[in-house]
Specification:
The chain has about 170 residues and is mainly α. The chain has one domain. Helix content is about 50%, strand content about 0%. The protein has 7 helices and no strands. Helix 2 runs antiparallel to helix 4 and helix 5 packs across helix 7. One of its GO terms (molecular function) is GTPase binding. This is MYO5B protein. Pfam families: DIL.
């Protein structure tokens, strides 16, 4: 059950983040607030179902960071440093794309300046990020089956003659 929910939450993360990276109309402060609220509801549900050890919540980390990126101030070099230290699960390309797509919803917000985005790129240039922008939502985690050793010892097993396993010898 834990593995199923980890896979499901990864798919939620990948599809939602890919939509965020492809749609300018959803890159806003209010979307960041809504995303963070919805993610906290999912995390609370996991906790309520005793699934917090499944790793499902960790698969949402890129989406959490994207939501926080939408909510942070984006003006000063201190803001750029905060973004760079916070967004460790997002690639440089994803951060820059979200900043480029960021759309102010009201007159109190301002667009992200090109100078600010260049500052972010300069600070993150040492990262060895993969060149992909979108997440692979078809990625499958390996299924792990627990090993449960048998209480039956090998000495107590009797092989019927009908199996024609005469070539096996007891050691």
């Amino acid at each position: 059950i834990q593995q199923v929910f980890k896979q499901l939450f990864y798919m939620i993360n990948a599809i939602t983040l890919n939509n965020l990276l492809l749609r300018k109309d959803v890159c806003s402060w209010s979307t960041g607030m809504q995303l963070r609220f919805n993610i906290s509801q999912l995390e609370e549900w996991l906790h309520g179902k005793n699934l917090q050890q499944s790793g499902a919540a960790q698969t949402l980390e890129p989406l959490i960071q994207a939501a926080q990126l939408l909510q942070l101030k984006k003006k000063t070099s201190e803001d750029a440093e905060a973004i760079c230290s916070l967004c460790t699960s997002l690639t440089t390309q994803q951060i820059v794309k979200i900043l480029n797509l960021y759309t102010p919803v009201n007159e109190f917000e301002e667009r992200v300046t090109v100078a600010f985005i260049r500052n972010i790129q300069k600070q993150l240039q040492e990262r060895n990020d993969p060149p992909q922008l979108l997440l692979d939502f078809k990625h499958m985690f390996p299924v792990l089956f627990p090993f449960n050793p048998s209480a039956i010892t090998m000495d107590s097993i009797h092989l019927p003659a009908s199996l024609n396993l005469d070539f096996l010898n007891k050691v």
